[in-house]
Structure formats: C-alpha cells, structure tokens
Amino acid sequence: MWTVPKPKYRTGLCAEGEIAVNIGGVRVVLFGEVLNRYPESRLAELLNCSTQNHEVISSLCDDFDPCRKEFYFDRDPEAFKCIIDVYYFGEIHIKPGICPICFIKEMEFWKIDQNVLDECCKSCLSEKEEELTEIANKVKVILEDLEVDECITRTQRCQRFLWRLMEKPGSSLPARIIAIASFLSVLVSAVVMCVGTIPELQVTDAEGKLVEHPVLEGIETACMLWFTAEYFLRLASSPNKLHFALSFMNVIDFMAIMPFYVVLSLTYLGTTSMMELTNVQQAVQALRIMRIARVFKLARHSSGLQTLTYALKKSLKELGLLLMYMGVGIFVFSALAYTMEQSHPETLFRSIPHSFWWAIITMTTVGYGDIYPKTTLGKCNAAVSFLCGVIAIALPIHPIINNFVVFYNKQKVLETAAKHEVELMELKSGKDARRESTSSLSK
Amino acid sequence: MEKSLAELNKAGSRSTSLLPPEPVDIIRSKSCFRRVRLNVGGLPHEVLWRTLDRLPRTRLGKLRDCNAHESLMEVCDDYNLEENEYFFDRHPGAFTSILNFYRTGKLHMMEEMCALSFSQELDYWGIDEIYLESCCQARYHQKKEQMNEELKREADNMKDIEGEEFDNTCCAEKRKKLWDLLEKPGSSIAAKILAIISILFIVLSTIALSLNTLPELQDTDEFGQSSDNPQLAHVEAVCIAWFTMEYLLRFLSSPNKWKFFKGPLNVIDLLAILPYYVTIFLTESNKSVLQFQNVRRVVQIFRIMRILRILKLARHSTGLQSLGFTLRRSYNELGLLILFLAMGIMIFSSLVFFAEKDEEDTKFKSIPASFWWATITMTTVGYGDIYPKTLLGKIVGGLCCIAGVLVIALPIPIIVNNFSEFYKEQKRQEKALKRREALDRAKRNGSIVSMNLKEAFARSAELMDVVIEKSERPHDNHFSPSRWKWTPKRAASETSSNRSFNAQELGSPNKARDTSPQRLNVQKLEEMYNHMAKTQSQPNLNAKDRGSRVGKQRDEIELGAIQDHGPPVLGTREGVGDMKSLSSIDSYISCATDFQENPRFPHGPAMDLGLQESNRFSHSPATALSQHGTAKTGQQTPGEREPMLTPVSITKPSCSENARRFFFSGNSSKTLIPKGGWRNDGGSGPPTLSDSSVISDHSLLSPEVSVYTTASSRTPPKSPESTTLAATVFTFHDSSISKYIDADTDDDEHNRDISDASPTERLLAGSSPKRNININYQKGVNHFETAQKMLGQNCLFPIEGICGVAHENHVGPEMARRPKLERGRQNTLDKSL
C-alpha cells in the first residue's frame, strides 16, 4: 500500500522537523516539510504549534506523550492511511470498503479539504450523499406525519386533521377508507366514460342526437361531485395553497374536474342562447377529451406510476433520442418506400406524408396491413426498415428501462431506510431524555 | 527485571495457571493509562478510555467498569495488565468500524463485510444494529433480509426432507419406497422410468385433446352434433386412468395427507383428472333431452379444464416451477405491468375514439370498441382488422405504438431479475442437496469419521494461523514497503510480532536484550551459512514448485543427518538451515507437503536434529525471536530456551497440553500475555519450560502446516517424541526467521544503534539467556524494528563469526546473489550466536 518512502515507522525519538503521531494505535513518524504542504490541516497545525503550549496541543490531539514526543489521536487508522496520501500525492482515494460518508468525516477531522478527493471517488461520494438527502427528505415527510398536534388554534388543528385524512392513507382507518373510495370513484368514472360512448347504450334526445344514458350521466355527476369535494378539501387543508395548486398531481386533479363544469356552464349558455348552439356542442366535444385526465388520478394511488413518471422525467434525453431515431428512420424509409413504389400502378403510397404512417407501423413492428409495399424493391426496403426500427427502438429504450429499474429498487430501499432513520431518531431522542433525567437525578 | 517478571507472572498469561491479578492491580493499571490497547483478533488498536465510556452498556464500555478478574474475563478473552492490553478473539475487520462508532458516534459498515457476520459482530460487541447510519443501513438490511430469506428457504427444504417420516402407520417401509418411487425421480432407475412414462402420458393426452377438435376426426352423435372420436376417447380414458392411479398412489403413500392435498402440484393433478369424471357423471345422469343443452354447456366448460393437465409437466421441470414461483413473487411488478397497459389502453383508445368517430363507417364506434385496437397496437401485434384513417388518428396510433413498447418493456426486467435469481437459487439448492446426500453416504460408509478428528485439529490450527496472518497484514505497510514484493507474509508476521511486543515493552523496557553466550566457532558458523545459502536460496525462489521443494527438503534433511555425526553444533546448524528452507516452503505449500515432512522428522534425524538444534538455539535465541512473526516468535523463544535449560523435560508434556498451549500461544502472540507466561516458566523451573517449548514447537509447526490442515497429523507423533518435534519446530523457526530477517536488512543500522545503547542488557542476557531472549524479543518488537535491533546486537557480539555476518548484512544488501536469503541466514546465525 505504501509505495513511496513516506512516513517512517520507528521507535526512536523523531528528529528535528518530524513529528510522531499515534493514530488509534498505529504509530507514524511524519516529516514536517511534507506536512506543511497543507498548512491548514490539523497535522500541520500540530507541527507548527510549539510543544510547550499544552492547551493548543490538547485541542489538536487527544493525548500527548511528552517524553516520546508522540501525539495520540483517537481516530480510525485505516482512514488515516488514505488521508495521509494527500501530503505525498496531492490527492486522496477512498479505500474501498470504507463508507464514503464516514471517510469524509475523517477528512474533516484532519482538516483536509474535500476538493483533494480524487474524481473517481467523488462520484461515489456524491452518489451516497444524494441518497442521504433523499432519505432525509423522506424522513422529514414521515416526521411531519408523526408530528404531534401542537397547533394552537382550533382551525389549525382541523386543518391538520383534514390534511392527514386526505393525504396520508396510512395515518388512520378513515383516511384509508377515503383513499379507497377515491380510487374506486376514479375507476368508476373512467369506466362510465368508456361505456358512455357505446352506441347501444346511448339514447336519442329530443333533437334526434345520441346522448349519454341518463343513468351513466348521473354516475358521472356523482363522481365529479366527489372529485370536486376532494379537491377543495385538500386545497383547504393544505398548509401552502400555492404550492398545492401547482403540484403535478393536483394539476391533474384540477384538469379532471374542470371540463365537467365548463361543459355545464357552456350548455347553460347555449340553452340561454347566449352562444351559438353548434359552437357550444363543438366545445363540449373538445372538452370531453379532457376527461381522460382522470385516469391519471390513479397515479396518486400507485407508487409504480409515480416511479414511471419520475423515470421518464429523468430520462428525457433518452426519450428524445428515441423520438429522433424514429423520426429519422420514418423520414428515410417513407421517402425510400414512396420512390420505390412509384413504379407500381396501384401503389398505396400516394405521397411521402402518407407513407409516414406506413413507416411508423412497420418500424414499430405493428403492421396493420392497410398499407404495404407491392414491388420487390419496396419489400426489401420494408424489411430493412423493420430491422432498423427494432434497433432504433431497442437502443434508447435500454437506458430508460435501466432508469426505471434503478428507481424502482431505490424506492423500496429508501422506504426501509427512512423508516429505520425515524426509529433511530426516536431511539436517540429517547436516550437523550433518559440521560437528562438521570443527570437531573444525579444533581 | 525481577520485578517486571513478577508482575508479568501476576498479570500475564493465565495459560500457566498463575493466580489471577487482584482487582487492585486492575484498577491501578486502568487508572495509570489514559489509553487502552485492544487487540482484536491480532489487530492492535489504541483508544482512549473515555472514548469507550461513551457507550457504557456495550462490551467495550463494560470493560472499563470491570475490576475483577472474573468479570474481566467475561468481557474479553484475555488481557495483560502490564501492557494495558485486552484481547478479543473476534474478527478484526468488523471491529474497525465498531471502534469508529465509539470515536465518531456513527456506525458504518465495511462494504465487503457479510451482513450476517456483521450483525453477529454487533451482537458480540453489544451494539444494536439500529445505530447503523442510513447510508449503510439500506445495504445492510437488504443483504440481511436476502440472507434470512435464503436461510429460511433452506431450512424449509431441510424440514421437507426430514419431515418425511413414515414411522407412524403400517407398512411404513413399503410406503416410503413407493413415495420415493413416485416423488423422487432421481432416487432410482425405476423411478426415473416412471417419471418418463408419466411425461409421455401427459404429452399423449394433450395431443389427443387437440386432435379431438379437428373436424375431420370428429363423429356426429344422434343429435347431429359433433362428438369425440371413439379412438381418441379410448386414449383419453387410458390417460386418465393412469393419472388417477398415479394420484391415488401418491396420496396413499404420502406421509402427510393434508399437506399432500394442499400442495399446488397435487391440486393441479386433481384438477386434471376431475373434469373427466364430472363429465361422465353429468352425461350419464342426464340423458333426457330437456336438460341436455345445459349439461352440454357445463361439459364444455369441464372440457376446457382438461387443458390444465399440461401444467402437470411442472412436476417434472424445475424451470416451470420457478416460473410459477417468479410470477407469485413478482405479482407486484405484474400488477404494475397490467396497470401501465390498462392506463395506456384507456388513454389511447379514448383519444383515437375522439379522433376517428366522425369518420364514416369507422370501426372505432365506442371507447370499449377501440380498446381492442389499443391493445393490439400497444403490444405491437397489429392485426389490421381495425386501424385509424384520419391524420389525427394516425398520429395517436404512432404514439400508441411507441408508448406501448416503452410501457411493456419497463417492468419486465424486474420480473426477469426475479426469475433469474430464483432459478439460480433453485440450481444451487439442487447441487447442495446432492452434496448433502453424498456427505450422508460418506458418513454411512464411515469414510469421513476418521477425517473428523483431523479436521478438528486442523481447524484449531487454522484458526490461529488465519488470525495471525490477518493481523499481520496491515502492519506490513509501515515496516517495509520495499519488501512487499517477495516476502509479504513474513514481513507482516514480523510487524505483528513487533506490535505485540510493543505492549510488553512498556512493562519491562530495560531487561537484558542480548542473546545468549556463544559457543559457536567462526568456522562452523560460516559453514552453516554456506549451507543455508545453498539450501535456502533455491526454495525461496521457487516457493511455488512443490515438487522441487520436496526434493530439496529431503536433501536438506539428509544433510542435516550427516552433519549430526560431526561436531554437534555444526550438525545442528546445518539441520536448521535445511529446516528453514523446508519450513519456508511449507508455509506456502498446502497440507500435502506437510504430511510428507511430518513422518520424516520423527523417523529420521529428528532426534539428532532436535538435540543439535537445541544447542544451536541456546547459542542464538535472541535473533531468532526478534525476527519471527508473532506466533512464531513467542513460540520460538521458549523453544530455544528449552533445549538449553532442560532437554529432559521436553518429554514430559502430554498431547493435550500441547494442543492447549499451542492454541494459547497463537492467541498470545498477539496479546503478549503468553510471553509473560513463558518467562514465568523459565523462572519457575525446567518442567514448565519444557512445556512451553513444546508449545513453541507446535506454533512453529503451524507455519509449516499453515492454515490449511495437517496440524492434527503432526500432533500425535509429537507427544511421544517431544524432543524430535521440538527440533523440527525450531528448524522451522529458523527458516521463517531468516525470511523475516531478509526483509529487515534495510533497517539494520538503526538496530545497531539501539543495541549499542544498552550494553547492560546484553550482559544480563548473558547471565540468564532464557529470559533475556524473551525480553529482547519483546523489546525489539516494541520498537517495531526488532529484527534490526537483533542484527545490531549480533554484530556487537564478541564472537567473530557473528560480527562477520553482521557486516555482511550491512554490506550485503546490494549483492546480487545473497540479498534475501543470505541475510536471512546471517540473521539466523546471529540469533544462534
């Protein structure tokens, strides 16, 4: 491990300009000039302070043996062996096996700047640190949930109670029931939306037009009312209204509710002939599509979906790559196919934009068969485009999948870690309390 | 010196069954040191007492409060008040992180540590795992859970295997045979054949089932409706009969009926058989036309259930079983997959519905109708029976394709991971099962029984050696980076020994260092040197060639024997030299070589050698001691003493004693306590010394035998011919020493200075060589440069030969031929002197 004639380990008293340190039982003799390369470090300070000044020495090290001139530090010798490298090489590598966080603490003790850590070890450190911050966030959330009601006013207490009821399904039985009810209502409204479009289940209204079955409409209204109530209760109970209104999940909630009321108001306007009826109907049709947003409400109840969105967000670059590959492939192959199929009299490729569709369907290996090449050259082109499509999709998808899997696994780990952290904090706080009590007793 | 010895007697090793130290002594030792030395598995640590006080309820915290010998012994495995050192016989790797917990308040886990063993260490040190920092917590728990799961599964497996007891009811023997025949295809050829027949029947029945639906092969019954082909119906009946018989036989022979009934594979079997009987029952009981339609419908359903029989194949394929298990275990991910698909289908079908619904004669009539399209598109099947026609619809369709590919691909790797893990595990278990069976068989045959004794012996030896080696390694760095290349192990051993000695040093710094008086002539010494140079250089160089070594070893032994006839001193030396080479080789070589050597020693020149060696040792104990690794060093010294003091006594010690002491010495090498014991022995009288020497022999042997095994093999011969053994041991020491010395040559100068500094010590040593030797050893160790000191001392010695050697060392490092080996020899010589 020691590749350079560096520290001397020996018995005798150290000569001028050298100091002997004992780190947790490992004795090292260090050259002063080497230590002075980092004058802010603890060892350099120790070297520079006079041996007579015992207060300074005791502030710098844990023990001092005046006859042997040996400074004792109650620290980890393993980490020190790595840290001492900085004086010789100007960089530090974390010894594999030592936890980076723990190592950083050691570096802080020796008053060595983190910047000297080599790049290769920094990444590993930052990874750990990220993980820690994530855990800390989780812990904060959990702690917030556990926080005892210390609100002074009654309204605040009510607010907190409501918040927990609506947002934390794990906190109590009613909260869980509410969560399940909300989940079911999402499902029901989605089903109703789909079923409502089946012609057999529709009824003709006075003008001979097909409209949704009144029963379905009733269910739909009930669901919408439930969603609305839920949304406003949440909004009312949230500690930070603006933050709440802008968060992703709540935007979706709002999008799911809003069309219903817009349609209601539009039809009211239409019936009161304040607007053109046809215009109203078109607008209503357009807003119907917005109902789809309610499906996304499921994301609130599924951590898997949240992971998916997170992974997609994280791998936007790869998604862009995927789309770019597909775009290039579609353009190239549709153009090729168009030109090759020109010779055929009954070609299905009427223009390049028309053949875009064919290219997509072929490259994604869907192959409806509504458009297909008829000339030999075109068929060869189709085969190539199919192969290229498979590759173009498979390549960028891999990192996306990787991201997803990593997040999925990490999520699980983080949850347990956060739980543990909370336990640890409880334990520590309990111990502190005990210590306080014992100390007071002793007094 | 006297005083220190007395103290050592008190505080030192309990191996010599001395009185335990008084609580007063313990308290005093604790109060006069601010720090404490903790030796964990050979790795010394130094820590402030107040650091340990931070966690008073843990083992180390209790150490502070224990003031009586008994309570102290409960907390630690051994201690030495003189050196203020406490020994714990635990894994040193985990201890560093645990000690850091005291220092920093943060418990981190070494990355390469096994979670289970770490948790055991935590238990031992009395630290709750909950203190683990969150950065390591996740890893720890994950690993632990994984391991626990695996262990549980293994335990279940074991239970399954052991749970099959047929003791309770009649004809248990026959039932067991039947059970094995039906359930364990690997148990016999008949069972295998049965399994193959069963598979064939399954395949046949499924083929028949499929053929039955071919219109060409179907008959029409009286109602004009198609019915089964009579031939195929016969096949079906035969198959069902076979299945039924199989199921019933299994049921009858099963040891636990209810468990059998519940087993998933057996449920499948039952479901494969039942539909047939239900169909027959229904058709036979309801012949009236009125109910016939209803019955037919029911029968149709039961027909479908016949498909289940294909699952019967799972019984014969671990792959299918692990698929089933995977699906069960990853239902979370499967749910996710389905959820993703469902959401995608919902969204895209409604989008495409709104895009396409104004198109005339569109097939997207409603959202449920376009579900089909979305499914077929998302899974990229694309039948083409329904496809978008408007531009908007086509855009939606394109997005749907890409989203489908993405969404399906996402959760699948997790499931695949589960599967591969389980599959691997299954494979591993199968292998483990086979191994266990083989082991059982071997036990039954009795071939293993004889091995066990040996193993037990070897294991104890292994334990020691391993610990020593581990402990040594970290120190190496400090001492001699340059040496690493060729003698890492030795260097390590040196360092460790040095450390352990350090502790002792405090207690008795100024005892006589120097080696014993010297009876050797210069000529003899030189002869020895030459001889050693020849023998050693080669073995060291090709440490890995067993064959060559063995041959050399033999030669060496022979030489030793020959020389025995000449002047005793010479003979011994030569023998030693040979032995050294052997020992060095041995340490590298595994048990096989050791075995070879062992027999030789007792039979051959061992006796002579032993005597000679003893002489030689008396000549130069100090040097030998200084250079050895911890275990070796401690042991060596006593060994040397013995010959000098009481050759007769050697015969005394019994095997058991040896073993015990041996073990102790191994520990002691680290803890230093044993050394104290040694001293005591020397002081007290010859018999104890002899014991110690025996021990030393063992320890010496241990390097040869090394971690691997064979210690046991040797032990038996030793007891009867303790002298011979001792001799062998000594030789080994020498060799090891020589190696160490080689490493240390660089530091010679320092040593000399030191040695010069204390002439009185030397004189003392001369007067009482035994004790002196020990002391020297310790001192040297303390300074970390024991080897060097020794060398220096040697140089100073009155004997000319020695001086010459020493000089050579200093000069010699640059010489091409000698460097390592010669130095080593020189050192050994010095020691002998």
Task: Please describe what this structure looks like.
- The complex is a heterodimer of chains A (443) and B (833).
- Chain A has 18 helices and six strands.
- Chain A is mainly alpha-helical and 443 residues long.
- Chain A has three domains: 18-125, Potassium Channel Kv1.1, Chain A (2-Layer Sandwich), CATH 3.30.710; 162-301, Voltage-gated potassium channels. Chain C (Four Helix Bundle (Hemerythrin (Met), subunit A), Up-down Bundle), CATH 1.20.120; 302-435, Helix Hairpins.
- In chain A, strand 1 (18-23) and strand 2 (26-31) form a beta hairpin.
- In chain A, helix 8 (154-167) crosses helix 10 and helix 9 (173-195) packs antiparallel against helix 10.
- Chain A is flat and about 110 Å long.
- Chain B has 833 residues and is an all-alpha fold.
- Among the domains of chain B are: 23-160, Potassium Channel Kv1.1, Chain A; 173-316, Voltage-gated potassium channels. Chain C (Four Helix Bundle (Hemerythrin (Met), subunit A), Up-down Bundle); 327-421, Helix Hairpins.
- In chain B, the strands form two sheets. A four-stranded mixed β-sheet of chain B has the order 2-1-4-3.
- Classes of the chains: A mainly alpha (443), B mainly alpha (833).
- At the A-B interface, strand 2, helix 4, helix 6, helix 7 and helix 9 of A face strand 1, strand 2, helix 6, helix 8 and helix 16 of B.
In short:
The complex is a heterodimer of chains A (443) and B (833). Chain A contains 18 helices and six strands. By secondary structure, chain A is mainly alpha-helical.
* Percentage of residues assigned to helices of chain B: over 70%
Computed CA radius of gyration of chain A, to the nearest angstrom: 35 Å
Q: pLDDT average of chain A, as an integer?
A: 80
The pLDDT mean of chain B sits at: 62
What is the helix content of chain A? 55-70%
Per CATH, the architecture of the largest domain in chain A is: Up-down Bundle
- Give me the CATH fold name of the largest domain in chain A: Four Helix Bundle (Hemerythrin (Met), subunit A)
Number of strands of chain A: 6
Unreliable spans of chain A: 1-12
Identify the strand order in the major beta sheet of chain B: 2-1-4-3
How many individual helices of chain A?
18
Question: Which term fits the overall shape of chain A?
Answer: flat
Order the strands across the largest sheet of chain A as they lie in space.
2-1-4-3
By DSSP (H or I, 4+ residues per run), the number of helices of chain B equals 39
**Beta-strand content estimate of chain A:** 5-15%
Kindly report how far apart the N and C termini of chain B lie: 23 Å
Show unreliable segments of chain B.
Answer: 1-17, 449-522, 533-833
